[in-house]
Write a structure and sequence with these properties.
- By secondary structure, this protein is of the alpha/beta class.
- 29% of the residues lie in helices and 25% in strands.
- The protein is built from five helices and seven strands, in the order αβαβαβαβαβββ.
- It has a seven-stranded mixed β-sheet with strand order 3-2-1-4-5-7-6.
- The longest helix has 18 residues.
- It is globular and about 40 Å long.
Amino acid sequence: MTRIVAGAAGGTPLVSVPGSLTRPTTDRVKEALFSRLDAFNVLSGSRALDLYAGSGSLGVESASRGAAAVDLVEFDAKASAVCQRNADLINGVLGRKTVTVHRSRVESFLDRIAEETLWDVVFLDPPYPLDQPALAAVLGKLAPHLAAGAVVVVERSSRSHEPEWPAGLERFADKKYGETRLWFAEPASGQQVNVGPVPED
């Protein structure tokens, strides 16, 4: 069973997507990921986006840890319904609507959002079969919607190649956790993320 690791709703169990449709981020990887984001000081008061959200666990974890607004994007009907249940759970704990669920394909969502919409933290945990060109296309659509100093986290199989970063995004760190590798990227121009030494996990 997955849970919210820390923050206002720390320890709260989350609803999981039934079957093998999604590949949820393990609590170990999630805890390590958010320790890094806390070290980067990008979560508090941020606007966060969780693409290919699955159960929405990364987005609701962000809300628990102080994100001001979180968007969960998931196309599958069963998974988006689970996202909504988890969003309702965290919104109830926080006493306000912080998390919003969008049932949509990721590409369509990014195509139709307002030009001025910007995010500070973005999670992408696409299905492993999504190939490099398709992922690069999504990252290209995302890049214009990143705030100065934003952090983008891409979760892939540890056997996958590094994502093909589009113009406007560059990698600044990566970390392997068993079968999972996290890639961290930031806007290639403008204010850079002041990461300092990358913390050990």
